[in-house]
From TrEMBL:
This is Glycosyl hydrolase. Coiled coil: none annotated. The record marks 645 as: Important for catalytic activity, responsible for pKa modulation of the active site Glu and correct orientation of both the proton donor and substrate. One of its GO terms (molecular function) is heme binding. The active site is at residues 527, 706. It holds the Pfam family Glyco_hydro_43. Keywords: Glycosidase, Heme, Hydrolase, Iron, Membrane, Metal-binding, Signal, Transmembrane, Transmembrane helix.
Length: 1041
């Protein structure tokens, strides 16, 4: 060794230095290589030898252009784990989706390459830190909500029409249609339209303006490679200096973004596009979202979104053309739907969602040709991570390649290498495969623009299939694509792209929906509580001043719910006499233990928050072993602990804990807050007696902590609380304890778990309860409201507080609700499917009992109706109370569940007294309602009388003394009241005479006493003023449609 090193250190031998340095470098490289190869916990995982010592193997595969094919081969050879870098493992084990993508763990540094246009602009995609990622996700979530995207649909339709016009011109000239080029133009223009309300004009000009798209495409290989050398990227194209001097690639797109933001600051948008949503967040929470983040979100939306959408569209048409038997079946489905009249002249997103074969073809494209060709790296957190039987140490990179995952025969069947859309037609099989479909990521790590992408793909594919006959110009040519980051066509030579010849199809244009729609229980259904027993889910909501109380719903899929009964159906169980609006039964909780179902509740007999006057109720529970039988519920067992929002928790040792909310005994000094806090005791269920002193376990700086639910998962106890009150400040918090329900409780790091603000389509969200499904996925049900944007402001929702659903993931043993994002109206969760909303309902009163879903205001103490005295009719004998008093009138109500519907009935009523009245009603509270009824006028003639919420009255005379009258209430942006006198020659023509209209804001006025915690009801009534109405009111039917 002295011979080798002597020339280096002895000045006389300096001439030998050039020869020695290479040896030294070789030795150094060899040491580094051996250290990387063997001095690691993943040294035993198989993979290419070069990959184990250097990232150059991945770079080489990227340059070749088919990383995905090599990864698939390696997993076929070596199994679930393949080493693809010195510290990175490609994972194809089924548990990886749940443990890596659904988990709140850090991304690999590769993602930071997506800070565009330079490293100052960190966006949701490029943010590596999990907590900051959640914050950024919340900031931009409202812009990506499908409900907001749909608001731009007419403008997207115009772009789709422009696309088809361009196709028509090419067809007329005999030229083929190059789908790759035109789909790129369309995808980029749509992103501009929904982001800024201004497309980039690629479609209009038919050109790539300033080579913006070409530059973006050229950057794909650079991005894929430089993701492994981020430090070098930050010195070159990621350097802010380039953007300052105007040398940034795709400057047309960046300039458009900057101009749009600048213009919007000066002139706020009329349309609530993505940019306006983000700027609203910035204006509302300036410390939470700065202008650089707004710009970064806009650029990332364009740079990462348009290319993947375009590539997926091209893949869809290519694979359909290569499998003409599937294309023929799809064409048949579309044509038949059109022939039935199911498709509008303009493509409807909702209509295309109901085409199952189309959806199966799109989903198979997602599986067979994922837009992302490289892995999705995640960093193993502290404490390590075990996938299958393999444990990985902290800091190891684990990546999931969608191509390898989607070609796992255990997950997608033995034909997983074949394009077969029909694998998705079996609902149960599709449900299982959906768990592992990661085209747009999964769970916490889903692509934020997935709703927009699916929206576009569905509309374009359906429209073109219907409007054009397509074929490949040269069927012998295969599609040549490259996977750098996205799997996109190789566009160096247009011969590589299969041009399509298109001929107009003989049918005019289709549209689509996502997998499930919120709310899952529309209409007045607040404070949901849920359990699962085997394959059955049961859910109960609050009923407040309405009877029967505690409605119980059943589902087997968390989406389609059926009302199966009520727990409080007898006077011995519930006596609600004259409560203010918002009184009665609050926040029922449903629990199941050792074969017994329990429902907990508390009933406010006095609730006057305006005067801070409340009589704190004693809570109670009822129980049964047969939840399907409403009559089987027991009489109440009352607790000796006051409060509301009761919850029961059984610990492993059998101890039963009761938590509830009431005002703290010692008020917060100097603070004008309610001081509602959660307290807990142990309880003897047989007697309802407390067996311990109450302990305060949660209070909130907002002054309201309520809706407590306690769970145990693993070694932790979890306390979920609704905080901030049930209005705009409403949110959900979580704490956990290792010692038990008495605490101490550790407050979660991501509180509130989400927060929908006053800028969102869903507001006031909170009061969550959790359930675990049979596959181990957790879900939250919660309340929210859907106000309507009207005349530049939000109009209160007529539905009141409704039940919403959101997925729950776990990271570091903390729950992450909906990926840390806001609660949306639409979700594409891979676990669930579209909700089939009923389009009509009718009760012909042909049974001996009323249908489920009819409610009385307060507990009735006398029987004032009959279904047998006149078969096929509901006969009402009006009681002595009119509709404006707090007592129980003869009033039968149903929840309004759709904004646009028509409520109607046919009434036979011949009153002999001027104070007798019967009719139909729109009901908010006894302070606010509108009724249309029949009564006797002062001159003895029968009249139709409309009463508005303010008490104003309009009267119309009827022609005949014995005619039946059809009463109609049209619900929509207002309530329109009309009638038709039946049996009359002039009016018996099917036409309804409108006699008045009431706007929705008048119908949702706040009561002077109490609070309207409920929602709009539609109903039938009869009354006499301070005397019973002796003349029966016969209703032939009631219906809405």
């Amino acid at each position: 060794m002295s011979v080798i090193f002597a020339p280096v250190w002895i000045p006389g031998n300096l001439a030998s230095l050039p020869v020695s340095v290479p040896f030294l470098l070789l030795i150094l490289l060899a040491v580094i290589a051996l250290k990387r190869r063997y001095a690691t916990s993943i040294r035993d995982i198989p993979g290419p030898w070069l990959a184990s010592i250097s990232s150059l193997w991945q770079v080489y595969q990227l340059i070749k252009g088919h990383t995905e094919q090599e990864i698939v081969k390696l997993h076929r050879r070596h199994g679930s784990f393949v080493r693809i870098a010195d510290n990175e493992v490609s994972v194809a084990h089924p548990d990886a989706v749940r443990l890596l993508l659904h988990a709140n763990i850090a991304k690999g540094s590769w993602y930071s390459i997506f800070s565009l246009p330079d490293y100052h602009y960190v966006n949701q995609m490029s943010e590596l830190d999990p907590q900051r990622h959640i914050r950024k996700s919340r900031n931009v979530a409202s812009g990506y909500a499908l409900s907001n995207i749909i608001k731009s649909e007419p403008y997207v339709d115009a772009l789709l029409g422009l696309l088809e016009n361009q196709f028509d011109k090419l067809i007329a000239s005999g030229q083929p249609v190059e789908f790759d080029r035109w789909f790129n133009y369309f995808a980029f223009d749509v992103v501009g339209e929904v982001t800024f309300s201004s497309p980039f004009r690629f479609l209009e000009t038919g050109t790539d303006i300033r080579n913006a798209i070409a530059n973006t495409r050229a950057l794909a290989l650079y991005i894929a490679i430089m993701g492994h050398y981020v430090w070098l990227h930050n010195l070159t194209l990621g350097n802010p200096l380039l953007s300052r001097i105007g040398l940034q690639p795709s400057s047309h797109i960046f300039d458009t973004c900057l101009a749009a933001i600048d213009s919007r600051k000066k002139n706020p948008a009329v349309r609530p596009d993505m940019m306006e949503r983000w700027l609203h967040v910035r204006r509302t929470y300036p410390d939470r979202m700065d202008e650089a983040e707004v710009f970064g979100a806009a650029v990332a939306n364009i740079g990462a979104g348009a290319d993947t959408t375009s590539a997926t569209l091209q893949a869809f048409f290519y694979y359909m053309l290569r499998h003409p038997h599937y294309l023929q079946k799809l064409r048949q489905e579309v044509d038949e739907a059109h022939a039935r009249g199911d498709l509008s002249h303009v493509v409807s997103y909702a209509e295309a969602a109901k085409l199952p074969y189309l959806q199966a073809c799109i989903k198979e494209t997602y599986r067979y040709h994922p837009a992302t060709g490289t892995g999705l790296p995640r960093v193993v957190p502290a404490g390590g991570l075990t996938i299958g039987e393999r444990h990985f140490t902290e800091g190891t990179l684990l990546s999931i390649n969608p191509w390898a995952f989607h070609r796992n025969p255990e997950l997608f069947g033995p034909d997983c290498d074949d394009f077969n859309p029909e694998r998705w037609l079996d609902p149960e099989r599709a449900r299982q495969m959906d768990l592992f479909l990661i085209h747009w990521g999964a769970g916490y790590n889903q692509c934020p623009g997935r709703n927009l992408a699916h929206f576009e793909i569905s509309k374009v594919s359906a429209t073109i299939i219907r409007d054009f006959d397509i074929e490949q110009v040269d069927p012998k040519k295969s599609w040549r694509f490259e996977t750098h980051f996205t799997a996109v066509p190789n566009s160096e030579n247009t011969e590589h792209v299969p041009c399509m010849s298109a001929l107009p199809h003989d049918l005019p244009p289709i549209r689509i929906l996502t997998m499930y729609i919120n709310p899952i229980l529309p209409g007045f259904n607040p404070d949901p509580s849920i359990i699962r027993v085997g394959k059955d889910y049961f859910l109960v909501t609050s009923s407040f001043e309405y009877f029967p109380g505690a409605p119980i719903y059943h589902s087997t899929d968390l989406i389609k719910w059926t009302l199966i009964g009520h727990a409080l159906t007898r006077l011995s169980q519930l006596q609600i006499q004259t409560p203010e609006p918002g009184g009665g039964v609050w926040a029922t909780t449903l629990r199941y233990h050792n074969g017994v179902f329990y429902i907990l509740a508390a009933s406010f007999q006095r609730y006057r928050p305006q005067e801070d006057d409340r009589v704190w109720p004693r809570g109670f529970y009822v129980k049964t072993t047969d939840i399907w039988d409403s009559k089987s519920w027991s009489d109440p067992v009352y607790f000796d602990q006051v409060g509301f929002d009761q919850d029961l928790f059984w610990d492993d040792d059998g101890t039963v804990y009761l938590s509830s909310t009431y005002r703290k005994l010692e008020r917060t000094p100097g603070a004008n807050i309610k001081d509602f806090a959660v307290h807990i005791v142990t309880v003897d269920l047989e007697t309802g007696s407390s067996t311990s002193e109450p302990k305060l376990i949660r209070e909130s700086s907002s002054g309201v902590a309520e809706g407590s639910h306690i769970f145990k998962r693993g070694k932790y106890y979890y306390l979920f609380t609704a905080e901030g009150g049930t209005e705009s400040g409403h949110c959900e918090w979580v704490s956990r304890s290792t010692t038990g329900p008495f605490g101490p409780w550790e407050v979660g790091p991501n509180n509130p778990l989400w927060r929908n603000g006053v800028e969102d389509d869903v507001q006031n969200t909170g009061h969550a309860d959790l359930v675990e499904d049979a596959q181990g996925q957790w879900w939250a049900v919660l309340l929210g409201v859907r106000p309507v944007w009207k005349d530049g402001q939000w109009e209160e929702s007529v539905f009141g507080r409704e039940t919403f659903l959101a997925p729950v993931d776990w990271a570091d043993d903390w729950p992450i609700v909906n990926g840390g994002q806001k609660i949306p109206l639409h979700s594409d969760s891979p676990y669930l499917y579209e909700l089939s909303v009923p389009v009509a309902w009718r009760d012909d009163f042909s049974e001996s009992e009323l249908q489920l879903g009819w409610y009385r205001k307060n507990t009735p103490v006398v029987r004032d109706y009959s279904l047998t005295e006149r078969p096929g009719h509901l006969r009402l004998y009006g009681g002595p109370y009119n509709l404006s008093v707090p007592a129980c009138p003869t009033l039968f109500l149903r929840k309004q569940t759709q904004r646009f519907c028509k409520w109607e009935t046919r009434l036979s009523f011949h009153p002999r007294n001027q104070v007798f009245e019967a009719g139909a009603v729109v009901w908010w509270t006894y302070f606010t309602y509108s009724s249309i009824g029949i009564r006797r006028g002062k001159d003895g003639q029968r009249i139709v009388r409309l009463r508005s919420p303010g008490g104003e009255v309009v009267e119309f005379g009827l022609r005949h003394s014995q005619s039946d009258v059809r009463l109609v209430i049209e619900c929509g942006d207002s309530y329109r009241f009309g009638f038709q006198e039946l049996g009359d020659v002039e009016s018996d023509n099917g036409l309804v005479q409108c006699i008045g209209e009431v706007d929705n804001s008048s119908m949702t006025a706040a009561p002077p006493v109490g609070v309207a915690f409920t929602g709009m009801m539609l109903g039938l009534y009869a009354f006499g003023e301070r005397q019973r109405c002796l003349d029966p009111a016969d209703f032939h039917y009631a219906q809405w449609k």
